[in-house]
Amino acid sequence: MPTAHPITFGPQVCARLNEGATREWLVPDGVGGYAMGTVSGLRTRRYHGLLVVAGDTPASRNMGLASLDAVVTLPSGAVVRLGVHEWADGAIAPAGHRLLAGFALIDGVPRWRWRLGAMVIEREIAAVHGRPAIAITHRLVTGGPVRLTLEALCTWRDAHGERTADGPPPAVTTAADGCVVEDAYRISGPGFTPAGEWFRDVRHRTEDERGLTSTEDLWYAGSFHAELGRPGEIAEVSAWAGDLNDQPPPAGTAVTAARARNRAVVAAAAPGDGTQATLALAADAFIVHTANGPDVVAGYPWFGSWSRDTMISYEGLFLATDRADEGRELLRAYAGTLSEGMLANTADTGKVEYNTVDGTLWFLHAIGRHVAQTGDDDLAAEMLPLLRDVITYHLSGTRYGIRADPADGLLRAGAPGHALTWMDARVDGVPVTARTGKPVEVNALWINGLATVLDLSARTGIPPGPAERACPQAREGFARHYPAPGGLLHDVVGGAGEDPVLRPNQLLAWSLPHAPARPDRATLDRLGAALLTPLGPRSLAPGELGYAGRHRGTPAERDSAYHTGTVWPWLTGPWVTALHRVGASGADLLTDIEGHLSEHGLGSISETADGDPPHRATGCPFQAWSVAEHLRARRL
């Protein structure tokens, strides 16, 4: 059985911050929290830390244990600091990355090895899956004896913000084997000695690039101490939230269990090769269990659950990895959010919102794929009445002007100040790509959804309702309005006029199971010449009005470029599917991403990338729909 590719780096990457600090690792806890950092050990984001705890929803996270800095006292009495921090003035101190012999990510468990002459010390980090708990081990590999001190740098703040010494320090109380911080989380380990000091002006260089506040202050809560006398001896530290009296397993045991669990996740997905195995393990990071059942984190480190992302990702995350039972539970839970024919979109804002035209249509698609691949006619019978209501509302009209045009059966949407498609970025409340009218992928999804209802009706014997008449009308309307010169499709019709700009949205009209159009290879090649990059299609072709080749700068600058040239790896899935439909192979597109698995979010695929070469990755380093669509496309 193939296993996930090990990802390893030597000192030429680890010991050079411009190399090692741009490669990020993630250890998810299965409930929305995580540990995250860089190969070099430098915290470059406000989101980097060893214990990041999810709240009532995966989006409401708090940063807890930020860093556990190792300090080694050699037999000679010399003191060597293995941690690494950057400060507001640009200084790097300590600079423990210079002693790194290597980094390895094997079976989802990150491992560092520092060489101090004849002595090697190894650190591993793992999550206790299913609870907000992290295990950290330090092992003497060769040499010794050595005295090891582990300094706990702490905070308790919203993961999106900062905490500084201008306010009160975190309240720390000493426990029998460590300390409790803010009554929110506990750290346990050997020989705890309390401290109490601000480490001021810790810098996060990536936040500088993102135009955000880049410094914070950390509280030195205390240190743990262990004597490692001979090779094989370990120092174990655990940090956890939730029930602070429910101590997790010893850290060494937790690391072993995490590695075994990750191997089992990969084996259950029955991957065809090492890359599929790597993606199957990456997919596991996004599937979380909350008080309401299974859910999907759209991306790490800052996203929570978004219904559009969840439904686009559904087939790749659940059906391509043998997790259909969890998926069924998720679909039933999401169905409970339907209102006026629309699916709730996001919990990131802390409230229920109904503000997409396509999220609901992707929900119909996900149900259709689940039933088609699993034969779950019971779910089909349960969902079909709800889906008929969705169709009825869309035909008669629902929020934001979403309504099928009686003249051609196509779905129209738009409201001032709102961007309802997946191209939803706004700057100062103004949509960058409003796409008011009848967007091409929305109507491809609409027709696909209508046909899905007909399929479910045929399977169950339950009448399909208005979809029976609406589907052929919409298909005819699509064939009449969307074709553009050269075999391409208009991006939006029925708005301020036909929109011939080269965007990738037309891929959905060629790739969905009930696609309303069919390309030829020449058309795909023509589109590819303008849009394709090694990380996937651009969101707008170079040369088009408003094209932005760099997804950089302040939040407003980044949002302006988000869908006007930025590369979106998730769209590789529809592109490969469209090629498959015309009898062509997309293997070269899927192979392109393999190098990316070891250059940004390790073992995963990023949210976005610059439209211009060298297509540097941007956005979340770990993105659900990017992974899911690559995984799905590899199963074609």
UniProtKB/TrEMBL annotation:
Top-rank taxon, per record: Bacteria
Q: Which residues form the Glycogen debranching enzyme bacterial and archaeal type N-terminal domain?
A: 23-230
Question: Which residue ranges does the record assign to the Glycogen debranching enzyme C-terminal domain?
Answer: 282-632
- Provide the protein name: Amylo-alpha-1,6-glucosidase
Q: Which organism is it from?
A: Actinoplanes sichuanensis
